[in-house]
Design goal:
Number of strands of chain B: 9
Distance between the termini of chain B: 38 Å
Largest sheet of chain A: 7 strands, mixed
Largest sheet of chain B: 5 strands, mixed
Helix content of chain B: under 10%
Helix content of chain A: under 10%
Shape of chain A: globular
Order of helices and strands of chain B: EEEEEEEEE
Strand order of the largest sheet of chain B: 1-9-8-3-4
Oligomer: heterodimer
Number of helices of chain A: 0
Strand content of chain B: over 45%
Order of helices and strands of chain A: EEEEEEEEEEE
Radius of gyration of chain B: 13 Å
Largest interface: A-B, 24 and 17 residues
Structural class of chain A: mainly beta
Radius of gyration of chain A: 14 Å
């Protein structure tokens, strides 16, 4: 079974621009989560989507948004980029379960550099 | 949230076993113990998880103490590819625990 894929792998943008990142989950996984990882802050949760609906949201400004399509693929968008948005953006997918916390499977990430 | 404590770093020789400890003295009865690792310049990778009994998979073994206040991740024969930061976390099955939060983890170095 193919793993989680993310595109693009690397991206360089300038302040004020916007960016869209894409994630394709493992086949059959309906939950997709997005994380931001930086050396200083570690892994921080952005949001989680399930069946095209945002179920949970982390503590990030409204410039960060996302969506999920009917095939479970997901995109996240960052508008009006700031230097501090430079980070590794990770997507993770999991099967849905109402009880037992199932493992999350991560993609390789998109390395975003804002100049 | 229940916390975990791990050593900052560990070293091992190639093809030798590695035992990574994790303390979680405030674990609750509904907490699962999950392990992830992150290789340099890659996304985190799920390794193994368990609740009460010891668990084995193709990557590693997880030994859970009888009182569940500690656990040990065992890599049976370390390879250079196992050099990574290893994270031990608790995930509550009762609380709809939907997000992961990693601490500093243990940095494992494997010597050839």
């Amino acid at each position: 079974k193919a793993g989680v894929t993310q595109t693009p792998r690397y991206l360089i943008k300038t302040r004020g621009q916007q960016v869209t990142l894409s994630c394709s989950p493992i086949s059959g996984h309906r939950s997709v989560s997005w994380y931001q990882q930086t050396p200083g802050q570690g892994l921080q949760f952005l949001f989680e989507y399930f069946s095209e609906t945002q179920r949970n949201k982390g503590n990030f400004p409204g410039r960060f948004s996302g969506r999920q399509f009917s095939n479970s693929r997901s995109e996240m968008n960052v508008s009006t980029l700031e230097l501090g948005d430079s980070a590794l953006y990770l997507c993770a997918s999991t099967r849905w379960s109402s009880g037992k916390p199932l493992p999350q499977y991560f993609g390789p990430g998109t390395r975003l550099t804002v100049l | 949230d229940a916390k975990t404590t791990q050593p900052n770093s560990m070293e091992s020789n190639e093809e030798e076993p590695v035992h990574l400890p994790c303390n979680h003295s405030t674990i609750s009865g509904t907490d699962y113990i999950h392990w992830y690792r992150q290789l340099p310049s890659q996304g985190p990778e799920y390794v193994i998880h368990g609740l009460t009994s010891n668990v084995n998979n193709r990557m590693a073994s997880l030994a859970i103490a009888e009182d569940r206040k500690s656990s040990t991740l065992i890599l049976h024969r370390a390879t250079l590819r196992d050099a990574a930061v290893y994270y031990c976390i608790l995930r509550d099955s009762k609380a709809n625990d939907y997000k992961l939060s990693f601490g500093a983890g243990t940095t494992v170095t494997v010597r050839a």
